[in-house]
Design a protein that fits this description.
The structure holds two protein chains of two kinds. By secondary structure, chain A is mostly beta strands. Chain A has strands at 5-7, 10-14, 19-24, 29-37, 43-50, 55-58, 61-66, 71-76, 85-93, 103-105, 109-114. Chain A has no helices and eleven strands. Chain B is globular. Classes of the chains: A mainly beta, B mainly beta. Chain A binds chain B through residues 2, 31, 33, 35, 40-45, 48, 88, 90, 92, 101-108, and chain B through 1, 4, 6, 31, 33, 37, 41-45, 48, 90, 92, 94, 96, 99-106, 108.
């Protein structure tokens, strides 16, 4: 079953604006990862944040994690038309369980950045 | 990061036939997975491909329908058997490396 729920399902913005996508999950996690997918192709790993981290940056990406609320957000600053893609969060289970090493994906957010 | 090659990248198949997808990694990896992405949906884990032993399938997926081989630490195959239109999906191979999951470009199957 899908653990992650993302909102919004679709986001449409103008180039230069910031885009924020949210992800909520249900069970305890070891880490949370964000991926990008262009037009039904393979997924590209964007960023990983561990359960003991609260914020992480990578270029124009900023990810936050609130384990008390079981939620994460992905912020893309100064968006570009080339950022148009689907974005997925994925949670990794804690060690010791049968799900360790596997990722559970959210439903994704379709981001469209208009030039 | 691991580089993953999948083939075929896409195929159109007839109902009732079977198709084998290959996944080649440029380095030895311990954990390799197969995911399915149905049209407009997120990714669902099919199974973990175990080197030298039978794959571990997730709930809702069975070996008869999705037989998997993993003869070594760099290669795996997924067969989609006795296909129906409901099997039309993107099938993605992925490997776990340093806590991150890397994906191949996927194999887009259309079943007529």
């Amino acid at each position: 079953s899908q653990q992650g729920e993302e909102d919004p399902q679709a986001l449409s913005i103008q180039e230069g604006e910031n885009a924020t996508m949210n992800c909520s999950y249900k069970t305890s996690i070891n880490n949370l990862q964000w991926y990008r997918q262009n037009s039904g192709r393979g997924l590209v790993h964007l960023i990983l944040i561990r359960s003991n981290e609260r914020e992480k940056h990578s270029g124009r990406l900023r990810v936050t994690l609130d384990t008390s609320k079981k939620s994460s957000s992905l912020l893309i600053t100064a968006s570009r038309a080339a950022d148009t893609a689907s974005y997925f969060c994925a949670t990794g289970a804690r060690a010791g369980g049968t799900s360790y090493g596997k990722l559970t994906f959210g439903q994704g957010t379709i981001l469209t950045v208009h030039p | 990061s691991a580089v993953i090659s999948q083939k075929p990248s896409r195929d159109i198949c007839q109902r009732g036939t079977s198709l084998t997808i290959q996944c080649q990694v440029d380095s030895q990896v311990t954990m390799m997975f197969w995911y399915r992405q149905q049209p407009g949906q997120s990714l669902t884990l099919i199974a973990t491909a175990n080197q030298g032993s039978e794959a571990t399938y997730e709930s809702g997926f069975v070996i008869d329908k999705f037989p998997i081989s993993r003869p070594n630490l760099t290669f795996s195959t997924l067969t989609v058997s006795n296909m129906s239109p409901e099997d039309s999906s993107i099938y993605l191979c992925s490997v776990r490396d340093s806590g991150e999951l890397f994906f191949g470009e996927g194999s887009r199957l259309t079943v007529l």
